[in-house]
Amino acid sequence: MFSSNSDIISHLPSNVLQEILMFLSIQDAVRTSVLSRKWRYIWAELPQLVFDDTFFRESIRTVKNNKLILTIYKVLLLHRGPITKFTLSLPELGSCTDIDQLILFVANNGVQEFSLRVWKPDCYKLPSSLFSCLQLEHLDLRSCMFKPPRVFKGFSRLLSLTLCEVVITDDVFSNLISTCPLLETLWIEMSTSLDYLEIAAPNLTFLYCEGIFRGIDLKTTPYLEEVSIILKEYRKNLVFKEGEPFNLVMLLESIPVIEDLQFDHYYVKCMAASGVPKRLPTTLNFLKVLRLCEICFGALDEVSVVLCLIRSSPNLQEISIQAYPGETAAIDPILDLLEVHYWSDVPLKQLCKVDFGNVSGTRPELGFIKLLLAKSPMLKKLLIELDSEDVAEQNRILRELTRFRRASPRAEIIFENPDEDSDED
C-alpha cells in the first residue's frame, strides 16, 4: 500500500508512464523530467516524436523561427532508444539539408511510422536514407519529390501510404505500389504529377484518389472495401487501361467486395460517357454505402449512372447524395426512369438511411425522393437539406414530400435549410 502522501503515478511501470507522456506535446513531456529522479529520462525514451503545429506554437513563444530546427536537434540528441513514430509538419522547416539530417537520424533508429509534411514553395526531394527504411509500416508525405534510387525494392512491410502533392512519375508510382505487398490503405491527393494510376495491391482495403488523372487501373485489388474517386475536373478521354476507353462495368468488376463507394460529379460524367447499362452484369452484393457528390438531376446521363448503381446494389444500407443545380434540358426521359412501377424488381430491402443535400425541389429530385420512399421498407431516416432560402419555395417542397407514399412506417423525414434548425415530419 502507498502512504497518503505518496506519488502513486511515479510508482507505475516505465512503459505505462511512456504511454501517459505520449498524450502530451514534446515540450510538456520534457518538462516532466524535473518531477523526480525517476521521471528524469522517461521522456527521452518515448518511441514516438511528433513535431507539428502544436510543437511550433509552443516553441515560437521562446524560440525564433530560425532556431526551431536546433530545438529539434537537441531533442533527438538527448533521445534514447528506438524511434518507432516520427512526425515532422512545421510551417518553417529550415533548409533541405536540415531535413535530410533529421530523416537520416530517424532512419537509423528503426522508424516504423514516418510523416513528413513540407510547407515550402518548392518541392523537397527525399533523401536516399528514407528509402533504406525497410521496416516502415506507415508513410505520409506532402509536397515532396519521390525519386527512389535504382536499387530501391519497395517497402515490404508498408501497411498505409499517403501521398499529397507529391511529385512522382506514373512508372515510379505503379512500381512503388506493386512492391508494397502488404499495403492496406492508400490515400492520394494530386493536383498535377500523376496522370495514369496503375494499382496492383493484393491486400488493399481502402483507396482514396483525388486528382486530375487520365485513367485508373485497379489491376489487382480483390479485397478493396472502401473506394473514393474524386476527379476534380472533367476528362474527355478518360481511360480504364492503357489503350482502352474507360468502362464503368470493368471498373466495378475489379472491386468485387466493395462496401463503401464514393464518386464525384466529374467521375460520374466520365462513367456516363462510356455508356450506362440499366443494371451491371455483376451485382454489387457487398455494397452498403453509396456516396455521390454534386450530381445534377437535370442531366440524364448522371441520373442513369446513379440509378444503375442503386439497381445493382441490393444490400445498400445508406445513400448520401449532394445535388448540383445544373442546367436542365428535357426532363421527361429522366422522370420516366424514376417511375416507381419500373422498379418492381428492385426492392431496397436494406436501405435505412438517406442523406440528400442541396435539394432545390426540381421534379427529378422530388421524383428520386419519391422512388426511395416507395421502395425502402426498412428506411428509418431521410435527411433532406434544402437549398432554397425562399420560404414559399421551401413550403412548396415540404407539401410535395408529405404526399409521397412511404413503404416504411418508421421512415422519418428530417428537413434542413440554411436559416432554420431541422424540422421533422
Could you explain the architecture of this structure?
Residues 6-59 form the F-box domain. This is F-box/FBD/LRR-repeat protein. It comes from Actinidia chinensis var. chinensis (Chinese soft-hair kiwi). The structure is a single chain. This protein has a domain at 290-425: Leucine-rich repeat, LRR (right-handed beta-alpha superhelix) (Alpha-Beta Horseshoe), CATH 3.80.10. It has 425 residues and is an alpha/beta fold. It has twelve helices and 21 strands. Helix 8 packs across helix 9. It is 26% helix and 23% strand.
**Level-1 CATH class name of the domain at 290-425:** Alpha Beta
> Roughly what fraction of the amino acids lie in strands?
15-25%
State the CATH architecture of the domain at 290-425: Alpha-Beta Horseshoe
Strand order of the largest sheet: 1-2-3-5-7-8-10-12-15-16-17-18-19-20-21
General form: elongated
Specify the biggest β-sheet. Answer: 15 strands, mixed
Q: State the helical fraction.
A: 25-40%
Spatial extent as radius of gyration? 27 Å
* Distance, first to last CA: 60 Å
Number of strands: 21
Q: Let me know the average pLDDT.
A: 83
Structural class: alpha/beta
Number of H- or I-type helical stretches: 12
Low-confidence stretches: 1-5
Remind me, CATH topology of the domain at 290-425? Leucine-rich repeat, LRR (right-handed beta-alpha superhelix)
Domain F-box: 6-59
Protein name: F-box/FBD/LRR-repeat protein
InterPro entries: F-box-like_dom_sf (IPR036047), F-box_AtFBL13-like (IPR053781), F-box_dom (IPR001810), FBD (IPR006566), LRR_dom_sf (IPR032675), LRR_FXL15/At3g58940/PEG3-like (IPR055411)
Pfam families: F-box, LRR_At5g56370
